[in-house]
Structures are given as C-alpha cells and as structure tokens.
Amino acid sequence: MSSAIEIKKIFIQKSERVKSIHLHPTKPWVLLGLYSGNVSIWNSHSQVTEKTFETGKSPVRTAKFIAHKEWIVVGSDDGFLRVYNYNNMESVVELKAHTDFIRSVVIHPSLPYILSASDDKLIKLWDWENGWECTKTFQGHEHYVMQVAFSPRDANVFASASLDCTIKMWNLGSSSSHLSILGHSKGLNSVEFFETDEKLHFVTVSDDCTAKVWDYDTKVCIQTLEGHTNNITSILHVNLDFNLIITGSEDKTLHAWNAATYKLDQVFTSELGRVWTIGFIKDSSQIILGCDEGILVGHIIRACS
C-alpha cells in the first residue's frame, strides 16, 4: 500500500455558483453561500437540499454555522452581516458591517465573537452578547482582506490574508497587527492553520498560482507548492488518516499534496468549472467542492501501489 491517495467523484449537484462551504459540527448539514444571494443547507447523508432562502440581491461570499446558538451568519457584497435562526430562518440581526464586499467571517471558538473581513481593507470584531456591538476594528491592510482564521494554539490570535500580498498576525486586544509577512508575488486569497507532529503551521494560497507552507514559530516559508495554472482560491488541511493539503483553483482543478513530504498525490479536475471553496465531511472521508455550476462530492481513498 502506497502513501498516495485518490479522489473519486461520487456525486454532483448543479446549482448557482457556490462561493462558500461550511459544515455543521453535529448534523449532516453543509451550508452553501451562493453568488446569487441565496443560502442553502444541503444534507450530505440524503444528498438533498433541505432549505434554501434569499438573503438579499447581493452575492454571498461567506456563510457560517454558529451551531450552539442554532444560527447562521451570512456576509454579502452589500456590506451587511445577516444572522438567522436556522430552524425557522427568522432574522436574528441585520447590520451594515462594512462599506464594501464582505469576504470572510469566522466564529471565535469559545467567546461570543465574530470576525468579518472586507474589501474596505478592514477586519471587525462583533460581540453578539453586547448588542452586536463592533468592539474592535483592525486596520493595516492596503488592499482587500480576503480571509481571516483563528490560531488553534491561541484563540486570541488570528491571521489575515490580503490582496496586498501580505499575511498579518493580530491579537484581539490590539487594533494593529503584531506581524506582517510579504508572502507572495501576487494577492493572497486564503490562509489556514494546521498541526502535524505537534508542530503548528499555516498555509497561504495566492493569485501567483502557488501555495506556501509556513512554520508558525519561526514564520519562515518551509515549502512552496507549485502546479496550478491559475489563481488558487482555497485551501484545506485534511488530517485524520490522510494528512493532506488540498488546494482549489480557478484552473478548475483540485491538487492534493502530502502534508509530510509535500509531494503532489493527485490532480482532480472539476466538471463544474472553477473551484471556489472546499469542505471535508469527516465521518465519510468525503470532500465537497463549491464550483461555478454547483457542488461536486468526492471520496478520498488510499491508492494501491
């Protein structure tokens, strides 16, 4: 048995362009943010769409479950954050959060906080137990902020990726970043943390068609992953039995890299156009891609040598 893996297609569902995917921690639900302005909840067990509703006329680029509150939070191109009860789809709150597109929202793992990142170059912290007040604005990026991610080692620390070509590290207590790294020759689209052998890393992907793996402690780039032929839009680390770095791109492919050796294991081509976002359904070893024309589900298996 070799260490190589394969991704085999098992399901396709055509829909509007899918810009974000988020998995519910306990239910077989996949939250899809759609460029049309709609949000859908798709059941990965029954493979049917359980709920679809319109949040507005503006594209949705990010949507997340807040499972312990039974909420979803949606960020749109009109600069609004909208929160709904996912049982009855009733509005919890609607607020004008930014003056430009909202690219990313992330939920704090333990505190009642949401971070939002926008094309207005700002990141904002929202406290839902304090009347949804914006308690901090983080400034310093010089271009669109495409994504934010909390550190698994310290939930007071988060990273941001921007089209200004930098990764910045922030602490929730300060409006200014404590570290800025010029990471790529073109804009960054995503950042994700992952741990292997008790060592923390982060990965960035860029319009320069590369992904880079960074040592969190030294902040040194330890590997550049090359092979895509267009902008890399998304990144996912799959642990468990696989230990993979998976990248999705506007070249309509998914690349699966061994996270220990950085060897390219497989190139998987999407039948539904450009790949915008990736999710992993842990209990089934299934990967779900959000593409121009819908979702594509594949099964990760080990390849025999």
Automatic annotation (TrEMBL):
InterPro entries in the cross-refs: Coatomer_complex_subunit (IPR050844), WD40/YVTN_repeat-like_dom_sf (IPR015943), WD40_PAC1 (IPR020472), WD40_repeat_dom_sf (IPR036322), WD40_rpt (IPR001680)
UniProt keyword terms in alphabetical order: Cytoplasmic vesicle, Repeat, WD repeat
CDD domains, per the entry: WD40
SMART domains tied to this protein: WD40
GO biological process: endoplasmic reticulum to Golgi vesicle-mediated transport; intra-Golgi vesicle-mediated transport; intracellular protein transport; retrograde vesicle-mediated transport, Golgi to endoplasmic reticulum
Function: The coatomer is a cytosolic protein complex that binds to dilysine motifs and reversibly associates with Golgi non-clathrin-coated vesicles, which further mediate biosynthetic protein transport from the ER, via the Golgi up to the trans Golgi network. Coatomer complex is required for budding from Golgi membranes, and is essential for the retrograde Golgi-to-ER transport of dilysine-tagged proteins.
CC terms in the record's Gene Ontology section: COPI vesicle coat
UniProt subcellular location: Cytoplasmic vesicle membrane
Ranges in a coiled coil: none
Superkingdom field: Eukaryota
Keyword Repeat set for record: yes
WD repeats: 95-127, 138-180, 181-224, 225-267
Species for this entry: Lactuca saligna (Willowleaf lettuce)
Gene3D superfamilies: YVTN repeat-like/Quinoprotein amine dehydrogenase
Identification of the protein by name: Beta'-coat protein
